[in-house]
Amino acid sequence: MLKKLKTKNMGLFNKPENWWLRVTIVVLTISLLGILATSNKQTSVKISDLENQNDSLRMELFNHGTVIGRYEITLEILKERDSLAAAKFETILSTETE
């Protein structure tokens, strides 16, 4: 009698008439893995592009900071050599430029 109970209670996946359920689960799993792999590849490409853009912006910022520093040093030298011209430069810088 115990043997008959075990054969009757085979579970949802083990029943021969539910072969379509096993196939559906396999197809869905493979599809999900494909989607995840594609998504991961696209994400890593985006991260790489953003890292390159970040590096480029940092180099550009460094270059502009260097130029600004040179202008500040030049203005200090100009103040020592010709204070009137330096005052005119500062006035133009603060009032006529945005």
Element pattern in H and E: HHH
Major sheet attributes = none
Q: What radius of gyration results from the CA coordinates?
A: 36 Å
State the secondary-structure class: mainly alpha
Approximately how much helix is present in the residues? over 70%
Shape: rod-shaped
Tally of DSSP helical segments? 3
Q: Give the terminus-to-terminus CA distance.
A: 95 Å
Low-pLDDT windows of residues: none
Structure description:
0% of the residues are buried. By secondary structure, the chain is an all-alpha fold. Helix 2 runs antiparallel to helix 3. It is rod-shaped and about 100 Å long.
Strands, helices and their partners?
Blueprint (H helix, E strand, L loop, with lengths): L1 H7 L10 H63 L1 H13 L3
Helix pairs in contact: 2-3
Descriptive keywords:
98 residues; 3 helices
Brief characterization of the structure:
This protein is mostly helical and 98 residues long. The chain is built from three helices and no strands.
